Amino acid sequence: MQQGRRRHYFVTGASSGIGLSLARSLAGQGHDVTATGQRAPADLSPDFPDIAYHQLDLSGPAAPLIALAAPADRVVLAAGTGFYRPLEHEDPAALTQAMAVNLGSVIRLLHGLYPTLARQAGRVALLGSVADKGSAGMPVYSASKGALAGLARSLSAEWADRITVRYYRLWPTRTPMHARAGYDARKIDWLLMDPDRVARFVIDHLEGGGRASKTISPLTMVGRR
Amino acid sequence: MSRWALVTGGSAGLGAAFVDQLLALGYQVVSLDRDQPDGAPPGLHAVQVDLSTVAALPELVAALDADRVFDVVVFNAGISAVGAFEDIDLRQMDAVIAVNLLAPMELTRLLVAGAKLARGASLIFVASLSNRLSYPGAAAYAASKQGLEAFANALRTASTYRVLTVLPGPLDTDHARHYAPVGSKGCKRQSPAALASRVLRRRHRSGTVYGTVAQALAGLSGLVAPSVMTGLMRRGLFTKLRAAPPVTDKRM
Questions:
Q1: Which backbone phi and psi does A12 adopt, to 5 degrees?
Q2: What are the chain B neighbours of A118 within 8 Å (beta carbons)?
């Protein structure tokens, strides 16, 4: 699959986790990559690939984001945030922030990118979660991912003849998100998927035919690189 | 001692049906709506509020009587924006997400954190049958309603409240007529009174409530064969919606 033509990818959430794995993998395959993340460039890991990286808060104005992403014909939105805590301990600012990053920024970006994506027969991957059906202890995150799944399903049908929109429903993956969310993932470490393998799967799958929604579980990974 | 219920969007459509029936069941009802209700029946306490301004909700909840707790809360208020996604104004889609998803989330948070819910209170979230069938031509609406169902499910597994998710199909309301494609006959619309009574009869049990048996079967088909049902929605609905200019909330 590495023989495919060179593409321009736009990746969010690239400073850590699956986004970082995506950026590394895509750069390694020789694609052009424009990436955003929440870390300052100086704080990136030493092995961060040599790509265009911009520190951006996705809950901020969408115009700079759209300008950065416009040349891309592949868009992979991996940024996500949220906390593992019951609603009564939720902070209203954190609720707003999680919904803005996980849902609002996706709506704005796809709305703004429509003309260029349609012109280039673009492909869009939205990274979701098995929490999209509602997981105890994470009501806000669940709501944001449920909404993302709903958006993806309807939008992929609307754009079916012009733009491919895929939603990836991920089982838990070994990323720093769990610790940031306040969840001790050590007890489910045996279950966690490797972010590099998840990233490679998404990149390959996005180029093929298939359904609008794809669940990625440890079983999906069996027998793959 | 009287029992209290809270209904969002209680001035028209399904919300008004919920208000009527809760009053008939003997509840004192607080209705949050941007419009005044048609009448002023005893027991109804109408509060005028624009739910698209989520930041105004803390003040609103703080203004409720300190010792009042609700036995039933119906998150019913909703708006939509239909047409091709790329043709709909972003502000309209923001309003859809705010009213349909962010407002119920923030309101639930305020009620829970402020101890405004009675023990075992019923929280009723009005989502949509589109959560099973998809809704090309109303992608932001579909997102808001599927997010609401996920939120309700997360609460259900983690709380002592009864949490009901309602998945209505087409209703015989002004709201549904406003967003229907041009030329829609609307002969199979369910009466809002029938749905409200079906939901309220089940308010003591957590679960999912469909509008009719036929809609429940359609919903199950959407779970078993999502691509097929999405394709049907695309051909049957989206092709009509995209052919006309977007239709959005009248006052946003």
A1: -105, 160
A2: 86
